[in-house]
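Good day; I would like, with your permission, to put a structural problem before you. What I wish to show you is a protein chain and, alongside it, a tokenised description of its three-dimensional fold. Here, with my thanks, is the record as I have it:
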Amino acid sequence: MNKDAPKKLQDNVILLINGLSKSGGALAKMLAQQGADVGIIDFGHMPALAQRIQQDVQDNGRRCLVLTPNPTETDHSRFAQQAISTIIDDLGELDSFITYAAEGDSLDNEDLATVPENGRSSPHLSIFDQYALTKTALEQILTP
């Protein structure tokens, strides 16, 4: 990428819902290279991968916030409200979001050490979580 090229997403805040995966990390890095700050909702509970993605974004001079819900949280709407509020408070106005499906991502050996106790090798997002976060993010973006 040409360092002198205009950054199309300069100072935008973009939320990646379910974006904690190898390809989600590549997407976060690309968004940062285009000038965006990135919020990520981590349902995979893989802190080493989250830290690596966060560092990649920061290495590109942008801010990155990774939020992880409590695994016992059952109030999806409340978590969605809190997550969006935290992203706005820490990164600024939410400009866009991407609901990211990482089901087919493969993990390398380093990532295998971070697979959570539930044995899932990639982040999972229930339909209820996805609905609550998408609805809340969309409401925030569309509210004048």
